[in-house]
Description:
It contains 2 helices and 13 strands, in the order βαβββαβββββββββ.
Amino acid sequence: xxxxxxxxxxxxGECDHIVASIADTxxxxxxxxxxxxxxxxxxxxxxxxxxxxxxNWVMTRLIELVRHxxxxxxxxxxxxxxxxxxxxxxxxxxxxxxxxxxxxxxxxVAGKRKLTLVLQLTNPDTYDGGxxxxxxxxxxxxxxxxxxxxxxxxxxxxxxVTPVKRGFRRSLTVWAHGPPFR
Length: 182
């Protein structure tokens, strides 16, 4: 299996707390690996968690989720979390989306990404579209839309966020890093 899912990794209250904690943090336009901007591929706004106070408990939980997923599912050589978690916001009024891509790219840090973890922060009743789709092989899998659910998958696997048609979707992403794949 190429995706490890945990449907109740965070409670609704914890997700709402994360969203409330970033509410006053300035956002950046989402860039692609290599610091490029391409709204045809991705239109989202980002908040980096290292810019937010009092959310250390979130990273502690994310580390444990990755550790558990890796132990029971992937068995990759993981060594660090070299990037801050990011919260992405996808706005229907801007056609928020992220087309098919993998999370491994060129560069010192992006080339070491081994596992991607995505936490669904938004109540699925508040938006339409915005599905996280993962293609580990010839079949497309849809990640759980449940608020608080987590999907963990190899960073080289193709995935996308379909366009948000109504409302606003937020998710949190973090990567576990290790030596390059051989």
